[in-house]
């Protein structure tokens, strides 16, 4: 089988980092990131940490395994933990349900959009749309770089990449995987998790930096 060629017609520009948060107490990594409409949540490995994006103050911490992507559906958090995805009550931290993750432990980013979970597959260079109740794969999008965080905003699909010392945030065509736009992070500054605030910012997990970075989303 020959690898699919993904067309890259993208416009590249430097990412504008407007603020950094963290490192967070007791955390050396940031994996997944999500936004619940008020707070940003960061998956730090053993705790899901929520903070106020205006003050930077940590407002909540849940003791949950959280070694990859994080999502919010308007009511519940979803968290990749090894080979499963947990559905979590954000008020109590209780796991309400779990489904198998499509990569069986090789999963990366996670986001919610239009009744589906979208899961990044890091080295497989794919994004899966899955059923949030069963984990069944509904469709798969091929990408041309390692996939870290994933987010939808205003009908646009964006994902993070991180290979060697190069990392960017890119908008892709959700049908073809064609790369349409790229925001290049400074060399050595990686993107692990990724989530939009629904407005003008992306929140980006910074991997082993232990930080979350706010990056301005380009106006179209």
Tell me briefly what this model is:
It is built from no helices and 21 strands.
Please provide a written account of the structure.
The chain is globular. It has strands spanning 8-14, 17-21, 33-35, 40-43, 45-51, 58-66, 70-72, 77-81, 84-88, 95-100, 107-113, 116-121, 126-130, 137-142, 150-153, 156-163, 166-172, 179-184, 194-196, 201-205, 212-216. The model has no long low-confidence stretch (mean pLDDT 94). The protein contains no helices and 21 strands. The protein has a five-stranded mixed β-sheet with strand order 1-18-17-16-15, with no helix packed on it. The protein has 220 residues and is mostly beta strands. 42% of the residues are buried. β11 (107-113) and β12 (116-121) form a beta hairpin.
| Silhouette | globular
Q: How many angstroms separate the termini?
A: 38 Å
Helix content range:
under 10%
* Quaternary structure type: single chain
- Report strand %: over 45%
N-to-C order of helices and strands: EEEEEEEEEEEEEEEEEEEEE
Instruction: Give the structural class.
Output: mainly beta
Spatial strand order of the main sheet: 1-18-17-16-15
Given as residue ranges, the uncertain stretches (5+ residues, pLDDT < 50) are none
Q: What is the arithmetic mean of pLDDT?
A: 94
Q: State Rg.
A: 16 Å
Biggest sheet record:
5 strands, mixed
Counted by DSSP, the helix tally is 0
The overall strand count is 21
């Amino acid at each position: 089988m020959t690898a699919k060629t993904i067309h890259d017609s993208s416009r590249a520009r430097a990412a504008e980092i407007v603020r950094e948060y963290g490192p967070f107490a007791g955390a050396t990594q940031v994996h997944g990131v999500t936004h619940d409409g008020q707070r940003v949540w960061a998956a730090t490995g053993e705790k899901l940490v929520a903070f106020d994006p205006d003050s930077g103050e940590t407002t909540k911490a849940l003791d949950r395994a959280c070694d990859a992507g994080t999502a919010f559906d308007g009511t519940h958090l979803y968290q990749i933990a090894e080979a499963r995805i947990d559905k979590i009550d954000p008020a109590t931290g209780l796991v309400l349900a779990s489904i198998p993750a499509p990569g069986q432990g090789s999963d990366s980013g996670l986001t919610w959009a239009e009744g589906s979970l979208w899961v990044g597959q890091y080295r497989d260079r794919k994004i899966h749309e899955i059923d949030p109740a069963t984990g069944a794969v509904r469709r798969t999008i091929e990408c041309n770089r390692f996939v870290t965080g994933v987010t939808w905003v205003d009908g646009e699909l964006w994902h993070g990449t991180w290979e060697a010392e190069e990392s960017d945030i890119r908008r892709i065509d959700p049908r073809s995987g064609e790369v349409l736009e790229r925001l290049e992070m400074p060399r050595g500054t990686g993107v692990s998790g990724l989530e939009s605030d629904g407005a003008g910012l992306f929140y980006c997990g910074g991997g082993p930096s232990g930080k979350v970075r706010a990056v301005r989303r380009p106006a179209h």
